[in-house]
Task: structure prediction
Amino acid sequence: MALRGVWQLKKLIVSYCDWGGSSRGIRAFMESELPTFKEKNPQLELVTELIRGQHPHLKAFYKNKNERVVCVKNMTPEDILLHATRLRNALGRKVVKLKTRHVTKHPSVQGTWTTEVKY
Result:
């Protein structure tokens, strides 16, 4: 995703094994989907990395110095493409759990309105 017109994902590393069965889907992804993904995203540095004896994964590096790793073992090429586009569209921020369902600067003194409120 672009923040103020600047793509936040700098680098995407595709790690795979040329022998293992869990890397079958990512090897098919590299043959079929990866060239078109690379053409559609010229702003992205895309690197393939051969790691023997390890499960395949996608590692994303963002401009705010954060990184995310997604394991893609035993996935189809379409699922791997979905994960790659989600990593590209992410801002790279850490996930923050909200304490309440709504966030406001001025909380209500009377309480939150619900449909069960009786007059």
